[in-house]
């Protein structure tokens, strides 16, 4: 991917992202840096400069970061990413400021919303902010003592309330200051109830529903194909006309067999015409090696004093040494490039033509998907949460009069 000077803000048009007049397809990676909660802050600049070179080499246009620290400056780091043509999709939550899936109502409070508002104020300044997630895997399935799966679904109405409040805040700030309104989404776990969760969180008026949806998916185990994997069923399910008319992509993907480099044939599938007829790409998990051994590269510092966590990482990485294809020097140490990095680079390069020709709407593909050109938008009726109807969407906990005063008076209308 050639470096570009500046990024047009990403907008949402029906089931696709747009970069100007062209369709935008996510070619991304999950980006976490050891000992850094927010790797896109300016205090991470020296490492980020080196990592951007690898992002460009891979052919990426997006990084997914789990946390943003609004108390730090981001201008120089985001400018470096923008100059490289890299967008950022980010979570708004932290360990402290998040919705607790086991006690969602008690964690829905003004203090949390104020923190999330500050994340919006930080990230809306940059054209290369793709969007924000109001939660990541908050709703999941647990096994109860009888061995049955139970859904932590009481958090869904709270997540909907959070989306409503965040969108109200962005509309208010835009009307008074011109601050950009960012696309808002949710990053879901890999679970069978996702289809229903999507329909619920993307229902209602534009002022409360999600703008896009992402889900992690590690179901592809090589060797596989669209027809034999879960991907084929997902194209059919999410391509139906009654599905909310918003973009969908994989927030995390890339299953790894123990002791084997990932061939990333799932990447080829994700950017094939049948998948692009409904989905908008995805983010590989993950850029840097960690204890779960999913890294594309590993940074070995020559300056850092090894901690117990570092030693654990080193032990976990030992079996992957056979997959190291190259070691490169860089400031402060060296980068070990794994076979996974090379495989992903080759797969993304091979898929470039299909991505460039990605259709604006679904077309008939090898699975017999029919056109969705006439598909409706998200349902405007306020869909009720189906599993636990006693849990209603809570009223806003925000003192909106105070917020309106702080941004320059009452909102229009």
Automatic annotation (TrEMBL):
It is a lipid-anchor; GPI-anchor. GO terms for cellular component: plasma membrane; side of membrane. GO terms for biological process: fungal-type cell wall (1->3)-beta-D-glucan biosynthetic process; fungal-type cell wall organization. InterPro entries: GH (IPR017853), Glucanosyltransferase (IPR004886). Coiled coil: none annotated. One of its GO terms (molecular function) is 1,3-beta-glucanosyltransferase activity. Keywords: Glycoprotein, GPI-anchor, Lipoprotein, Membrane, Signal, Transferase. It is found in: Cell membrane. Its EC number is 2.4.1.-. Pfam families: Glyco_hydro_72. Splits internally a 1,3-beta-glucan molecule and transfers the newly generated reducing end (the donor) to the non-reducing end of another 1,3-beta-glucan molecule (the acceptor) forming a 1,3-beta linkage, resulting in the elongation of 1,3-beta-glucan chains in the cell wall. Belongs to the glycosyl hydrolase 72 family. This is 1,3-beta-glucanosyltransferase. The lineage of its organism: Eukaryota, Fungi, Dikarya, Ascomycota, Pezizomycotina.
């Amino acid at each position: 991917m050639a470096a570009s000077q500046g990024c047009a803000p990403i907008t949402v048009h029906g089931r696709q992202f747009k970069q100007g007049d062209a369709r935008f397809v996510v070619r991304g990676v999950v980006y976490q840096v050891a000992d850094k909660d927010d790797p896109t802050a300016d205090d991470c600049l020296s490492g980020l400069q080196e990592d951007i070179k690898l992002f460009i080499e891979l052919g990426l246009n997006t990084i997914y970061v789990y946390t943003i620290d609004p108390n730090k400056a981001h201008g120089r780091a985001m400018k470096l990413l923008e100059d490289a043509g890299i967008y950022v999709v980010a979570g708004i939550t932290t360990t402290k400021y998040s919705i607790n899936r086991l006690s969602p109502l008690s964690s829905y409070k003004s203090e949390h919303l104020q923190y999330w508002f500050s994340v919006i104020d930080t990230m809306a300044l940059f054209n290369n902010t793709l969007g924000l997630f109001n939660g990541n895997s908050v709703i999941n399935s647990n096994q109860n003592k009888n061995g049955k799966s139970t859904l932590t679904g009481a958090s869904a109405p709270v997540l909907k309330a959070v989306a409503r409040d965040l969108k109200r805040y962005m509309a208010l700030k835009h009307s008074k200051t011109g601050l950009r309104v960012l696309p808002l989404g949710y990053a879901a776990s890999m679970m069978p109830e996702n289809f229903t969760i999507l329909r619920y969180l993307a229902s209602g008026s534009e002022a409360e529903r999600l703008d896009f949806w992402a889900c992690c998916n590690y179901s592809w185990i090589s060797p596989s194909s669209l027809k034999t994997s879960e991907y084929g069923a997902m194209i059919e399910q999410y391509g139906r006309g009654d599905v909310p008319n918003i973009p969908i992509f994989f927030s995390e993907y890339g299953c790894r067999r123990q002791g084997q480099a990932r061939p990333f044939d799932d990447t080829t599938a994700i950017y094939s015409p049948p998948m692009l007829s409904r989905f908008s790409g995805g983010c590989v998990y993950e850029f840097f090696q960690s204890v779960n051994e999913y890294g594309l590269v590993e940074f070995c510092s020559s300056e850092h004093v090894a901690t117990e966590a570092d030693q654990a990482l080193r032990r976990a990485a030992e079996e992957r040494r056979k997959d190291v294809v190259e070691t490169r020097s860089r400031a402060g140490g060296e980068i070990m490039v794994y076979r996974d990095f090379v495989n992903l680079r080759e797969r993304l390069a091979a898929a470039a033509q299909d991505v460039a020709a990605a259709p604006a709407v679904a077309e008939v593909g090898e699975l017999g998907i029919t056109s969705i050109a006439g598909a409706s938008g998200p349902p405007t009726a306020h869909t009720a949460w189906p599993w636990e109807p006693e849990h209603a969407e809570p009223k806003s906990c925000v003192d909106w009069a105070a917020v309106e005063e702080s941004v320059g008076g009452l909102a229009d209308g």
